[in-house]
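dude i think i finally got it to work??
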Amino acid sequence: MATGEKIAVRQIQKPQKENVDTLVSWFLKSLDISESEDTLEPGMLKQIVITSFEGVGITSRELNDKLETPRTTVIYHLNRFISSGLIVRRGRKYFLRATDMESTIEEMQADMEREFGRMMEIAEKFDQMMMGDIYGRGKGQKRIAKRK
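look at this
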């Protein structure tokens, strides 16, 4: 996970009607990238996925032309996608993080698991320090028993 990358996951009900458009919107809402269905992000993500499948990627100018949207707006949304960990930039082109959506989600899951593991280590140290401060125990005292 890159420094500053933010993977947010919201619990959103799975769409009743499953098609490409509803699933794209569901992914964007679940990753806290998009709130409404009539925004620019679904069209952008579909273009990025298509060009990623083809292995060619897409530039911000190409997205600008295809979606008839100001380039500054396109770049703003691309940066949000990058920040979420969903897409990456290679040179001037943007790609889905992995070759397909399933692999992308797997990589994001692995990032979150690594980060939570790191947080658990720090939480354990924090708890030990707090117990030492609260009960006056030094570094050599017994560790707190973990709850199950």
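Helices lie at 20-30, 41-53, 60-67, 71-84, 101-135.
im so relieved honestly
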